[in-house]
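go over this record:
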Amino acid sequence: MDFQHLTTLAIEAALSAGKIINKYINNAIVVEQKEGGSTYASQVVTKVDRECERIILSYLQPTCEAFDIGLLSEETKDDGSRFEKDFFWCIDPLDGTLAFINKQPGFSVSIALIRKDGIPVIGVVFNPSTETLYHAIKGHGAYKNKKPWHIKNTNDYLTYVTDKKLSDTPKQEKIQNILNKHKISLGLKNIKEISGAGAVMCAIVVLENGPACFLKLPKTATGGGSIWDYAATACIYQELDLPAKSFNGSPLNLNKKGNTFMNKTGVYYSNFKNCS
């Protein structure tokens, strides 16, 4: 499998989707609802999501035939090919649809190639708001705008990155206790919050605002993000040797059976390793 070639195609696909997103960014967009998790964010969809998916698939679907690759994409029904093939594409054509609808930063394009055992081997994220490209290939490092990316944690405070404000989050006291422990362990002065992005950009914002973390507690209600919300960034974190895992510390299951939602295990991302 030529991962460099596949990465080039994934990057081209992500950049093309980004052009579509920017074309519509100042337009009023009709919001539709689809089957999703228990949250509004997981149920909204627009024609922009679908157009982005179409352009991405125009690049990647030929590789499914040429290299016998499966496919999992947010706006297409899961056909189960991810369980049959050695690798599958995992696509979120427009992550952070709610931020996009509200004309706020925090949306992105996310494309990953995942091994059948759930290990990410390619991760591509494009932020159309800033025209910034992030990508990683297993064993070859992480890149920002195609240059090697090295994380520097320079803040004297802990940044808590979240899609939903802590004040609006269930079990906020438990999360606050986790953040306080991190603050003390890292010898930091206080905690600041950055909220409102989709899960993909939340993970990227963590890397850009260190020391920082992003987490989802396990819950019974369906939701908590789906495989495509974490696949690409998990690869980037893997190559930066940083935690991108289930809340209990086990590896993220990026090829789970049953459904694509991650609610039962939760997720935990951080750009520090000396506490969890």
Notes: Helices lie at 3-24, 47-67, 97-101, 172-186, 199-208, 227-240. The first strand starts at residue 32 and ends at 33.
